[in-house]
Amino acid sequence: MKERMTVSQIVAVIESTIYAVNMDVELKQERTGVNMMYDFIKDEVIVDIARVQKACQELPEPMPLETYLRILTIHELGHAMDRKALLDSLDRTKEIMLMKKQAAAEKRPTDLPLMTMVIEEHETDIAFEETAWANAEILNSFFEIVDGDSFEKVKAHSLSTYRASYEYDLEIYNGFIDTQEELLSV
Questions:
Q1: Which residues contact 185 (CB under 8 A, 6 or more apart)?
Q2: pLDDT at 100
Q3: Of 147, 128, 106, which Cα lies nearest the Cα of 37?
Q4: How far apart are CA 151 and CA 131, in angstroms?
């Protein structure tokens, strides 16, 4: 579906969705490489206009851009509803980021403490994503922003990207654990 919207039309859809669910969250445009995200520190939704249009075209089934924008917006607002938990996780997130930064990329798959943290980070990310989707579902059922079928398709597609990355790293982690156990049993 090759639907073109101007930047101002995209912004208007996002802002009208924020308004429709009675939330007071600022919208900011920025080239991040991520279609849309919630910055819980600044309490704002960030949209990468070019990326969000491309991401909509990457869905397994075509969907109107306006519908996709509304779904992503209420998902990001779902994160905003969970802001306290996100803020509470900040110290641990910083620890993990620092450890990942200090570890040489080629050694990561053989560094058990680091891989354990990577798995923890994936599990935390997935939990926050699932919570945001649950919150978005509540917003959608209450305010009737989009049809349920479209919502479920975007939700499933979004969560699958997080789970695929997690499962890839989990396979490396489990292989490392298996190797360690074999060495210990010798």
A1: none
A2: 82
A3: 128
A4: 15
